[in-house]
Structure formats: structure tokens, C-alpha cells
Write a structure and sequence with these properties.
- Chain A has 491 residues and is of the alpha+beta class.
- Chain A has helices spanning 2-6, 8-20, 30-33, 57-70, 122-129, 148-154, 161-164, 167-170, 198-202, 236-248, 261-271, 291-307, 319-330, 332-337, 355-369, 397-414, 430-436, 439-452, 467-479; strands spanning 26-27, 50-52, 74-77, 94-97, 104-108, 113-117, 134-135, 171-177, 183-187, 211-218, 220-221, 225-233, 255-260, 281-289, 312-316, 342-345, 373-378, 383-390.
- Chain A contains 19 helices and 18 strands.
- In chain A, helix 17 packs across helix 19.
- With 378 residues, chain B is α+β, with helices and mostly antiparallel strands.
- Chain B folds into 3 domains: 2-176, Uridine Diphospho-n-acetylenolpyruvylglucosamine Reductase, domain 3 (2-Layer Sandwich); 179-241, Alpha-Beta Plaits; 258-335, no CATH class.
- Chain B has helices spanning 2-21, 75-84, 102-108, 115-118, 121-124, 153-157, 190-201, 225-235, 245-250, 259-265, 311-320, 340-353, 367-370; strands at 26-29, 47-50, 57-61, 66-70, 87-88, 125-131, 137-141, 166-173, 175-176, 180-187, 207-213, 216-223, 238-240, 273-278, 295-298, 303-308, 324-327.
- In chain B, the strands form 4 sheets. An 8-stranded antiparallel β-sheet of chain B has the order 13-10-12-11-15-16-14-17. Chain B has a 5-stranded antiparallel β-sheet with strand order 3-4-8-6-7, sandwiched between helices.
- The radius of gyration of chain B is 21 Å and the shape is globular.
- Classes of the chains: A alpha+beta (491), B alpha+beta (378).
- At the A-B interface, helix 9, helix 10, helix 12 and helix 18 of A face helix 1, strand 3, strand 7, helix 6 and strand 9 of B.
- The complex binds flavin-adenine dinucleotide (FAD).
- Flavin-adenine dinucleotide is lined by residues 39-40, 75-83, 86-87, 98, 118, 140-142, 146-147, 149-151, 153-154, 156-158, 206-207, 211-212, 333, 422-423, 459 of chain A.
Chain lengths: 491, 378
């Protein structure tokens, strides 16, 4: 760092940035930079050269122009809650934080949309819309902190996305600045936009295609009736069968979450949600609808749960009980975090019917690596969050954990799933991308990136691995005799 | 099962490579069912590449809510298979001339009356197999509902009208069919209908479609028996047996879409054009001089159909309230009000998938590049 601050080129860029931003808009001192060294994936750290905090879209544009003219990499950052290192800084680059762009521009109840700046927190949108009886449906567990810009960049999900969709299904407009200096308005308050669906590809683009400055989200009316059911099972596969039966009956719950024994015990100790400690797995199911239908649906689901082998079913009809039941699930990550010095959160998705098989495989890996695993799933859509418990202070444990995690993800691909359901690739899953995609597919991704960002300045070295990296890895894997399914069908 | 898929990919990729080697350009065609929307696009030199031979359902797991079908599969065949399991494509793909294919459904990105409540084609799309302009077979997305590995190329290809490549297969999320369906008629004028639809949109209810035309607002309700009958009680109006009304709207078989009837009712100064006007749904219908008979409103206000002899006027009005217009039969209007910056980026994306411009598409973004100065300003 010291050499960069004395380099006249960098000095000049820093002066230009300072001149374009308000007082305090450029952070360059070590203490100030420290909070930006990592995102939610704290194991991977890097001090950035600078952090910039623009307050307006014009200031974002100025930062992008200066960086373009001086060939400085840019790492966009929302709230830094990402779990794959997407916002990990670049040693010679600036972190472009959208945190100060936190204005709710408009809640337009007639059109059922809200226009907000990228730095607005997810939960703040629903809070602002609640006066109209409306809300923003995607609800990542990090919703009190994470930004809507980050949600779009990761195409985040939440416990309600089985019924109400991911971020991509609930965003209809955005303003985005590209590294070439274009300001593009995508979509609007309208259902379909002309031409290529740039907004769809922006969702999940992990800060690599453009900087999102404003988002238009759709708002939904709150359902008048809600019921939350908790079902306890003596074995996990019975729980998985219950999920298939419910969906097979044509019922799409608002949310359907599963936790295994270790996760249940951790969550119960942490949140006192009233979870049965002897259960091998619990299912939490939220049903919503109008007052006239909720009893009937609730009874049907209860019967299906019992038929599948639930030995206990609790039904929560009032809000306080429902919040208590959800609190355990929503705090599962920090709760598991208390069981060991560190935990590593995985995010693969598999076709739901292979859940039992997957769990057995994880159990075996856990034995092999001597690392305990707590499992939390979005059971309705097959998105798994195995949490591997470890201690980074014990030499070799972090590496072992990463290796074991990598194997779980490769299994997800082999079962017809994906290495990431909602947390993104970032820097974390680059190697597994080589397993999931062929060289021609990766090349196509790089081509798409170059169309948006020809100079490659936006969030370099993230998301999509280079072919060289995959080549080296492939060689390594072959040497160890474990090249995982290179030409696997993913359909 | 994946054999079918590999064969389909190989077959189409060979055709693309042969055309490339011979320097021929290709126009991708499913069944030709959207021809009325986009008659005269591109240069006429393109050779037709038909996907209609590549058909069949590759995989269907009702309990996973996912189906995978080859591009040439007729939409009707797919829907019949789903119906046997009490499931459906929630976005109600139009089937003009009753013969649309899965590939055309994805490439056109068009959805039916349920669009505001159940999303569009791209929303249901989970993965695609694609042959790009180099003749390479590529797979993006997959068969699972949550998947953020790599850029979301599947959804980018939806609505791209073949500009980026040949879709050989697609995986789609399906939904359970509604237990009960009921349509109500309420008499009111257009302004009142738009207001009424917006108030409905702000409350929780089982609305799955709206259609206003000629003084009558039709509201379709769908869901559990209890939810639908409670909603019928609340909304009042007249429950009606509407036969194929909603399919007719979806497929443009409804009388409103027949030009001859329109011309009979007017003395137009020029031939009437059918304008597909996409607006912020609450926008008032305040374009002067439009007769009720020439106007229909779908999507709780978000889609207005207008027969008009001066589409330019319609366009100016729509754009002034944040919307855009596609004049049916005029391919260029499918690009709406996109700016030069948008078109320049789309051109670059097209080049990334199809560098030699092998695929002739009605979405011709490159139009701007040949006009005066280059669109990219550095
Ligand atoms: C306890 C906990 C629970 C979580 N639960 C969930 C969950 O249930 N579901 C889920 O999907 N995720 C979850 N996450 C992950 C994370 O919260 C989401 O990925 C979130 O969307 C990240 O938002 P952020 O504002 O923190 O983005 P950041 O972490 O700051 O950035 C994430 C990525 O987006 C890019 N980016 C951010 N803002 C912009 C912008 N304005 N323009 C362009 N690119 C941008 C960054 O470059 C980076 O690549 C959880 C995380 C934690 C810590």
C-alpha cells in the first residue's frame, strides 16, 4: 500500500476522486479501510487501495469515469453481507460503496411499485410500503442489513421465494451505469420492456456488468391470513417425502424450510423457539391466503405431514407464535455459529427428490473429514445450506473445510443441480464453476461480460473462472484421480 | 432421456455450422405462428432453420414442478402433458394459429392474460440449451428453481427473437392448476375499469386476469373453491359462463382483434394498425379521440390494445407516461423506445453470441450503427 500512496499516478487519481466527491467521500487510511477488507465471507480478506462513498448517481458516474481513464479496477459494494466474497476488494482498486445512496425515491401504490436507490436496505422497502398494505416479497435472512442493489447483483432469495420468486421476479426496473460511461434505464413501471432483457441478466451479475444505482421493485398486497406449521420427524427422509406430497397435492406454501438435528438444537438454544430437541429433522411451513381458505389448506397440510410420518405438528395462528417459530430458523446461521469458532456456509441446489441421498453423502464426508455439519435447507426448492463447523486456528482446518465444501458442491452438480442457489460465485466457488460449465460455456460468459465491460474494470477475477484456472485445476483433479464429471449433462 | 437432448443439439449445431461454412444466414423458425407480429424483418436472404423436427418432452417431474422440452415441441402438446398432472404453464403462452412451439414461445417472450400475477416466460424459465453463432451447443441454468451460477443467459435469450442463437431445449417451472375458476362481468367505462383494477391489485385476492372492452370489465378469479367464492361475493357483479373468452384473448381470436370489424366501424384516414401499448398500469387512458370499440385493456391496466390510424400519436402518448408501443406488423417497433445506448449494448451482446451475424432476427439492434455517427461514445 505504501508504494501506491507515493506513486504519482495513484496520487493523481486519488486527488481527482476527492475533488469529485463530498467531504469524507474517499477513505484511504488503514483504520478506515479495515471494515471493507471482506464481506460476509470473512475468511477471505484483502485491503483495498481506496474506498469511495458517492452520494448521487452523478458522483458514481464521475468515479467510473476517473477509474476508466486511469485503468483502475472497481469493486461495487452494498452492505457487505454477501457470502461468496463478491465484494472482496482488489488490491489496486477502489471499493465503490453504494451505502450512502439510501433514499426511497417513491412508493407508488397505484402501480404497486417502489423506486429506491441501490443502497436502501431490503427491509426498509417493506416498512415504507406497509402504510399501503403492501410489501416487497423477497426476504433474505440478512434483510435488516443487505441492500437492494446487492440483492439484485446476487439475485437473492429468501424463505418466501418458493411461492413469490427470487429478486429477478420482483424487480421491474433499474438504472445502471456501465464502465464505458453509459447510464442505462432498464425496464420501468411496466411489465415487459423492449429488446433484449438486460434487466434479467443484470440480476445475479455480481457487480461484474454494471453499477446499479436505482431499482424499481414490485410490491404485493399482504395476505390477510397466515398459518405457520412446525412438524417434527424421526428421520430426514420422511420430512423430504412430506415436502413432495404437499407440492404433489397442488399446494405451494409461502415458505417451506427444513433443519436437521444439529441445526434444530443450535437454533433452540439460541432463540427458544420451542423446537422439539429430539427430532431428526423439522419442517417449518408457512401457508397464506384469504381468511376463507386458510383453515382448509391448513388441515390438508397437517394431514399430509402426519401421513408422511410427522410425530408432532404444531400450528401457529397468531402472529406472536408465528414469529417465535420463524425466529429459530432466521437465526439459524448465528446460532450454529456459536457451536464452533468458525462455520462455513454452503449453498448448492439439487432436485428435491435427491435430498435423502445428498444428506447421506454429506454425513459420510463429515465423518471422513471429522468436521460436524448442521443442515438448513430451503426444502421447497432444493436449496441446501450445509454449515460446516471448524476452527480456523487449528492449522489445516480451513483448507480441509474448503475441500470438503468443494466436494459437496461437486456432488450437487453431479445430481443435476448447481453450485450456488442464491449466494453467488464470487471468489469462493470459482473452482466449482469449472465443474459445472464447459470451456465453451465459460467463454460465452466472458464474451457477455466483455460486451458490457470491454476493459474488464468491474469486479475483475470474480464470478467466472478463466480457462487457464480451470485447466490447471483439471490437471490437478486428474492427478488426484477425481476429475468430477467433466461432460455431465445438466438437463 | 438426455440422449434426445444431445441428438437435438447435434442436429441443429450441424445445420448452423453448415450455414456458417457456406456463408448463408439463418432465420430461426418454429412453426411460424408469430408471423403476423413480425412479417417483414431483416434481409430476405436468410435461409429458414426450422426447429419443428426437434420435438418431445425430455423430462417431467411433477413433484419438482419442472418440465424440460425440446424446442419444436408444440405448446399444445406440452400443455396437455402438464394438464394430466393438474399442472400448467402459468404465463399462458399465446398460441396463434394453435400451433406455437416451445422454442418460439421462449424466443418471442410473449405471455397471456395472467402476466401480472404469474409472471412471463422468462420468469418461468429455469434453463436452456442453445446453439450459438459458432455452432456450439451450450447449456445455461438447469432444472432447479434456484441457480445463480454464471450470468443468467437463459432469461436473456427469452424474448430475444432468435438474435442470440437457436434454442434447442428449455426447462420451465410449472404451477398447479387452479381448483376453481370463475369470471365476473362488471359494466363500467374504461377510466373506471382501470381504477377498479388498480384497487384490486392493492388487495389480496385471487384475480388471475382482467379484460375490459366495450363497456364491460371481465375479471377472472382462480384458486381454491373457498377463495374464489369468497371473492365472487365480495366483488359482486355477474358470474358468467364465458366459454373460451380467455383463450380467445390470449390467442387473438377475440372479435376485437379482427381488423375487418374495426374498419367497418370507422372511417379511418389510413389503414388501422393494432398497437400493443405497455404502460404503467395505473396510467389514465387519456389519449384523445379513441373510441371505446377500438380499445381493450388487459393486465389490470398494464397492457392496452388500440386500433389506430396514426401509431405515431399512440407512441408519443405512451412514451410520455413511461410506456412503449409495439405496432403489430412493424418489426422495427418491437424495439420500442430504446435509446442508442441500449441498442449499442444489445449489438455488442449479439456479437458476443453471434459474431458473424449468422442469425437474422426481427430484433435488429445494429440499425443504429449504420446511421450517422457510431453509437458508442468514449
Ligand atoms: C446472516 C446472513 C444471512 C443471509 N441470508 C441470505 C438469504 O436468506 N438469501 C440470500 O439470497 N442471501 C443471503 N445472505 C447473503 C447476502 O445477504 C445477499 O447476497 C445480499 O443480497 C447481499 O447484499 P449486500 O448489499 O450486502 O451486497 P454486498 O455483499 O455488498 O455485495 C454482493 C455483490 O453484489 C455486488 N453489488 C453490491 N451492490 C451493487 C450495486 N449497487 N451494483 C452492482 N453490484 C453491486 C458486489 O460487487 C458483490 O459482488 C445472507 C447473508 C448473511 C450474512
Amino acid at each position: 500500500m505504501r508504494c501506491m500512496s507515493s506513486d504519482p499516478h495513484y496520487k493523481q487519481v486519488q486527488t481527482l476522486l476527492q475533488a469529485s466527491l463530498p467531504e469524507g467521500g474517499v477513505i484511504a487510511d488503514a483504520a478506515g479501510l479495515r471494515p471493507y477488507e471482506c464481506d460476509g465471507l470473512t475468511a477471505i480478506r484483502q485491503q483495498p487501495w481506496l474506498v469511495v462513498l458517492p452520494e448521487t448517481e452523478a458522483q458514481v458516474a464521475a468515479v467510473l469515469r476517473i477509474c476508466r481513464e486511469h485503468d483502475v479496477p472497481i469493486v461495487p459494494r452494498g452492505a457487505g453481507t454477501g457470502l461468496s466474497g463478491g465484494a472482496r476488494p482488489h488490491a489496486r482498486g477502489v471499493v465503490l460503496s453504494l451505502a450512502k445512496m439510501n433514499q426511497i425515491i417513491e412508493v407508488d401504490a397505484h402501480n404497486c411499485v417502489a423506486r429506491v436507490q441501490a443502497g436502501v436496505r431490503n427491509l426498509a422497502i417493506s416498512e415504507a410500503a406497509s402504510a399501503h398494505g403492501l410489501y416487497y416479497a423477497p426476504d433474505p435472512s440478512s434483510q435488516i442489513a443487505c441492500s437492494i442493489g446487492g440483492n439484485v447483483a446476487e439475485n437473492s432469495g429468501g424463505v418466501h421465494c418458493l411461492k413469490y420468486g427470487l429478486t429477478v421476479h420482483n424487480v421491474i426496473g433499474a438504472r445502471v451505469l456501465t464502465s464505458t460511461g453509459q447510464c442505462l434505464e432498464l425496464g420501468g413501471k411496466v411489465y415487459d420492456a423492449p429488446g433484449l432483457d438486460l434487466l434479467a441478466v443484470l440480476c445475479g451479475s455480481e457487480g461484474m456488468l454494471g453499477v446499479i444505482t436505482e431499482v424499481t421493485v414490485t410490491l404485493l398486497p399482504r395476505p390477510p391470513a397466515v398459518a405457520v406449521l412446525l412438524a417434527a420427524f424421526g428421520d430426514v427422509e420422511a420430512g423430504a417425502a412430506a415436502v413432495a406430497n404437499i407440492i404433489g397435492q397442488g399446494i405451494i406454501p409461502a415458505g417451506m424450510e427444513m433443519m436437521d438435528k444439529l441445526a434444530v438444537q443450535a437454533a433452540e438454544q439460541f432463540a427458544h423457539a420451542g423446537y422439539p430437541l429430539d427430532a431428526a429433522a423439522i419442517l417449518l411451513i408457512e401457508l397464506d391466503g384469504c381468511d376463507e381458505e386458510i383453515d382448509h389448506v391448513c388441515n390438508t397440510v397437517q394431514r399430509l405431514l402426519e401421513t408422511a410420518g410427522a410425530y408432532q405438528v404444531q400450528v401457529a395462528r397468531d402472529q406472536a407464535d408465528q414469529q417465535r417459530l420463524w425466529k429459530g430458523r432466521k437465526s439459524a446461521f448465528p446460532a450454529v455459529g456459536r457451536l464452533a469458532p468458525d462455520y462455513y456456509c454452503m449453498d448448492g441446489t439439487i432436485p428435491r427428490r435427491r435430498l435423502g441421498e445428498m444428506l447421506r453423502a454429506i454425513e459420510e464426508l463429515s465423518r471422513e473429514y471429522q468436521l460436524p455439519v448442521a443442515n438448513v435447507f430451503h426444502a421447497g426448492d432444493g436449496n441446501l445450506h450445509p454449515l460446516i463447523l471448524f476452527d480456523a486456528n487449528i492449522p489445516g482446518q480451513l483448507e480441509n473445510t474448503e475441500e470438503m465444501g468443494g466436494k459437496i458442491l461437486e456432488l450437487c452438480v453431479a445430481m443435476g443441480g448447481t453450485v450456488t442457489g442464491e449466494h453467488g460465485v464470487g471468489v469462493e466457488k470459482l473452482d466449482q464453476m469449472c465443474v459445472q460449465f464447459s470451456a465453451t460455456e465459460l467463454t460465452q460468459f466472458h464474451g457477455l461480460k466483455a460486451a458490457w465491460d470491454p476493459a474488464g474494470l468491474l469486479n475483475p477475477d470474480k464470478g467466472i473462472p478463466t480457462l487457464t484456472r480451470c485447466g490447471e485445476l483439471g490437471g490437478m483433479h486428474v492427478r488426484q484421480g477425481q476429475l468430477p464429471h467433466p461432460d455431465l449433462e445438466r438437463f | 432421456m438426455s440422449n434426445l437432448l444431445t441428438q437435438a443439439g447435434t442436429q441443429l449445431s450441424e445445420q448452423v455450422q453448415a450455414a456458417k461454412a457456406a456463408g448463408r444466414r439463418l432465420i430461426i423458425n418454429g412453426s411460424g405462428s408469430k408471423r403476423g407480429w413480425l412479417p417483414n424483418f431483416g434481409d430476405a436472404n436468410g435461409e429458414l432453420l426450422s426447429t419443428s423436427e426437434v420435438r418431445g418432452i425430455v423430462a417431467y417431474e411433477p413433484e419438482e414442478l419442472v418440465v424440460t422440452a425440446l424446442a419444436g415441441t408444440p405448446i399444445r402438446e406440452l400443455e396437455m402433458t402438464l394438464a394430466q398432472q393438474d399442472q400448467m404453464l402459468a404465463f399462458e403462452p399465446p398460441q396463434f394459429y394453435a400451433q406455437g412451439t416451445v422454442g418460439g414461445m421462449i424466443s418471442s417472450g410473449l405471455s397471456g392474460p395472467s402476466r401480472p400475477w404469474f409472471g412471463s416466460v422468462r420468469d418461468a424459465l429455469l434453463g436452456i440449451s442453445l446453439v450459438n453463432g459458432a455452432g456450439e451447443c451450450l447449456n445455461f441454468g438447469g432444472q432447479v428453481m434456484k441457480n445463480v451460477a454464471g450470468y443468467d443467459v437463459s432469461r436473456l435469450v427469452a424474448g430475444a427473437f432468435g438474435a442470440l442463437g437457436v434454442v434447442t431445449a428449455a426447462s420451465l417451472r410449472v404451477q398447479p392448476r387452479h381448483q376453481q375458476q370463475q369470471t365476473l362481468h362488471l359494466e363500467m367505462n374504461c377510466a373506471a375499469a382501470v381504477r377498479f383494477c388498480r384497487s384490486l391489485a392493492q388487495q389480496y385476492n385471487p384475480v388471475t386476469g382482467t379484460w375490459w372492452h366495450d363497456g364491460v370489465l371481465s375479471i377472472r378469479l382462480g384458486g381454491s373453491e373457498a377463495a374464489v367464492s369468497a371473492s365472487v361475493q365480495k366483488l359482486g357483479g355477474q358470474a358468467a359462463n364465458v366459454g373460451t373468452l380467455w383463450q380467445d384473448i390470449r390467442d387473438h381470436k377475440h372479435e376485437f382483434f379482427k381488423a375487418s370489424l374495426q374498419v367497418g366501424a370507422h372511417q379511418p384516414s389510413a389503414p388501422l394498425k393494432l398497437c400493443r401499448v405497455i404502460l404503467p398500469p395505473a396510467a389514465p387512458q387519456d389519449l384523445p379521440g379513441v373510441e371505446a370499440a377500438s380499445l381493450a385493456v388487459e393486465w389490470a391496466g398494464g397492457l392496452r390494445w388500440l386500433w389506430h390510424d396514426e401509431p405515431q400519436q399512440v407512441r408519443a402518448w405512451a412514451e410520455s407516461v413511461g410506456g412503449w408501443v409495439w405496432v403489430l406488423g412493424e418489426a422495427a417497433s418491437a424495439l420500442g423506445n430504446l435509446s442508442r445506448e441500449h441498442l449499442a449494448l444489445m449489438t455488442e451482446i449479439k456479437k458476443a453470441f453471434d459474431p458473424a451475424h449468422l442469425f437474422v432476427s426481427p430484433l435488429n439492434f445494429a440499425v443504429v450503427e449504420t446511421a450517422d455517427e457510431p453509437a458508442h461514445a468514449h
